[in-house]
Amino acid sequence: MAPGDYQRQLRLRAARRLIAQGRPIGAAAAQAGFSDQSHLTRWFIRCYGITPGGYQRATLASPRPEPEGVAVGVAEPRAAGGGLAERCDVRPWQPGRP
Q: 20 with 10: CB under 8 angstroms?
């Protein structure tokens, strides 16, 4: 994995954690190190298959919080996009999965 891909993965995880805590998406994007909200949204959709807003609505509606350091409902990377699996290192999030 290239250093830039690794850094993006860390930023996505940080943003996902902040979004699950109820922070505004723009603030989560900035705090996680993305240049702007649209940059976060592009990569969030590519890697998780859901918009940050959709993820936030689903996580805030669920009764249990996301465990620290554990991705909710993710295990395998997406294969689409030519090398995207290596850049994301996650499977798209799906509602209703533990």
A: no
Let me know the angle formed at the C-alpha of 78 by 66 and 20, rounded to the nearest 5 degrees.
20
Contact 16, 56 (CB under 8 A): no
Picking from 70, 90, 92, the residue whose alpha carbon sits closest to that of residue 6 is 90
What single-letter DSSP state applies at residue 72? T
Residue 94 CB partners (closer than 8 Å, separation 6+): 49, 73
Q: Please give the C-alpha separations between residue 46 and each of 52, 64, 68, in angstroms, as whole numbers.
A: 11, 25, 23
Q: What is the pLDDT of residues 12-66, one digit of tens each?
A: 999 999 999 999 999 999 999 999 999 999 999 999 999 999 999 999 886 665 5
11, 44 Cβ separation under 8 angstroms = no
What is the reported pTM?
Answer: 0.66
Tokens of 66: 């996301």
